[in-house]
Prior knowledge:
The chain folds into two domains: 2-104, Response regulator (Rossmann fold, 3-Layer(aba) Sandwich), CATH 3.40.50; 152-289, no CATH class. The model has no long low-confidence stretch (mean pLDDT 83). The protein is rod-shaped. A five-stranded parallel sheet has the order 2-1-3-4-5, with helices on both faces. The chain is built from eleven helices and five strands; from the N terminus they run βαβαβαβαβααααααα. Helix 9 (245-252) packs across helix 10. By secondary structure, the protein is an alpha/beta fold. Strand 4 (75-79), helix 4 and strand 5 form a beta-alpha-beta unit. The chain has helices at residues 10-22, 33-43, 59-69, 84-93, 107-193, 199-211, 216-226, 230-240, 245-252, 256-269, 279-289; strands at residues 2-6, 26-30, 47-51, 75-79, 97-100.
Amino acid sequence: MKIVIAYDDLSIRRSLAIFLGDAGHEVLQTADGQAAVGLTAKSAPDVVLLDLRMPRMDGLAALRLLAAEHPELPVIVISGAGQVADAVEAMRLGAWDYLAKPIDDLSLLTVTIEKVIERQKLRRQVRDYQLNLEEQVRQRTAQLEVANQALEQKAIALRELLNTVQEEKREAQRAVLSRIETGVLPLVRQAKEGIAAAVPGLLAQIDEELGKLDSPFSDHLARRFARLTPTELRICQSIRRGLSSKEIAQADGITAETVEAHRKNIRRKLNIANEQVNLAAYLQSLDEVG
């Protein structure tokens, strides 16, 4: 561990340095606060021991700079017995702990250093956990946004498709009524007015006309999709699977511009006038409505 000692009393500073050096630490020494700030910036220590009473720049002034420039660096201040107010102010300014002079038991110095290092580890773990949690929240939020967009596209496509289905049903109903009026009812009237011998033939014709009413809605849908070319039907399948224009172009050996042209034709032939309707969601919704 690298430790900076800023202490103006040479004999005490050397004693602290010898004790920490014997404990296996790399120790850098300085006699004033200004030099301590520069030495810290240059050497990037793990801990700084800072006396509050020093020439040129006192410990409180040096602490302000160290806390601003190195907020994650543990700084332990050393104050005299009559400097309790200064020690309290140092803690307020960002000191991690303090020791009172004279330090009769140097093992207390070791305990204090170990304590601030442990605090530093815990703070880093908390910070890393928070960063990881924030990243997970960002990822989850992004996933939810994508899911919400997909749901919105699905809802728009379903509304458009249901509107189309309702209109096609109305058209089918009109077609049924028209066929009944023009094909079935006249035969029924002839059956009522005709002779008995002609009734079986008229009934056969009525049965034939009724057979033509089997599924005008399905016939209408079939005719609508029959307007699509084989290439457009193949592209519809790719779009329905969620492939992009670029992916479809690569698979079919055509340009993305050609795929976009096919998309426009497909929308026109399927009567999708609403530009907000997602074509893939619309094609997927056909199964649900069906």
